[in-house]
Amino acid sequence: MAIGDGKSPAFKKLLEAGIQVDMEALIHQSEPSKSLMPLFLEGLLGPLLGHRSGSRKGSGLDFAELNHYQQGDDIRHVDWKLSSRKQSPYVRHFQEEKEQRFELLVDQGASMLFGSLADSKAVTAAKLAAQIGWQAIHQGDPCSCSVVSASEVHWGRSSRSLQSWLHALSDLQKNNQNINPRAEASDQLLSSSLEEMLNRRYRGRHVYIISDFMSLLVEEQKNRLTQQLEALSQHNSLRLIYIFDELERSFPEAGFLPISDGYHHAEINSSDSGLQLALQRTFSQRLQFLSLIASSLLNIKLLPFDCALQYRGELS
User: Which of 9, 79, 223, 294 is the most buried (most CB within 10 A)?
Assistant: First the structure.
């Protein structure tokens, strides 16, 4: 059962509070926000905004990936700085200007409903996915948007058509509005999603995983996720977009604060040092793990975003 039904006054309050998102807001993301425009132009969010390129390696100017040097590779493309640091030769491969394929995996599980000042993590993830997808569609590249809910993965279809993209946004909206805060989330869904991508033999794609990565708090998931991300990054470009609420990173001492799951209401003592430490620990554990992955594996970037849709590069 969803918190809102899309028509009731209660749902309108959820929209105004930034807890859930509607189709109008996702369509509005067709133009990059001022905060995201520089990230698109700099290529941090992928080869978007006119930077057309494809999966066939050639002598073009669009960077594709870093790989170990193999006999026959052009020595002019050796990355000497990385090779020196790794004590092993690495070569930069480039892509000719052809079609790119974008794969968005968006977390809309129960933990993503959390939000303190701006939008919830779920709404932030949905808006960010929409902006990335819109840019791909504008430049004529196929894009899919798959959604991880509390109980299953809703796989999207890759297409470059506007009609298919609007259908994908509609599915994203429905999944967002159907988030049940009482649902028992599966810690294995993210891992299962990556496993399915490996089974589908993704090659030369730009994969975006947009989540708060709560499953990383389950110790046995870390090794599996590391192996899957490493395998997926060998043939694809990965961006791990870590969505967090500022309250998770830094808990202010502001007395008693009201909290709600949409059904029940309570207060928590923000001056409780044990609570502050627990929140900061869970935030740090996820960030440190993702930072280690991004720094140790090729073709993976970590992009932290807060719920105001601000890129927090100082944390990566």
Answer: 294
Which residues have a Cβ under 8 Å from the Cβ of 34 and sit 6 or more positions away?
A: none
In contact, 48 and 56? CB cutoff 8 Å: no
Closest-CA residue to 93 (of 62, 72, 71): 62
What strand order describes the sheet that includes 90-95?
Answer: 57-58, 90-95, 62-68
Residues 256-282 have pLDDT tens digits of 877 766 666 788 887 888 888 888 889
Q: Which has more confidence, 284 or 55?
A: 284
Res 1: pLDDT: 40
**Euclidean distance between CA atoms 286 and 234, whole angstroms:** 23
Q: pLDDT grade, residue 62 (50/70/90)?
A: low
CA distances to 207, 216, 279, 314 from 45, in Å: 10, 23, 28, 16
Give the pLDDT of residue 216: 87
**Residue 313: strand, helix, or coil:** helix
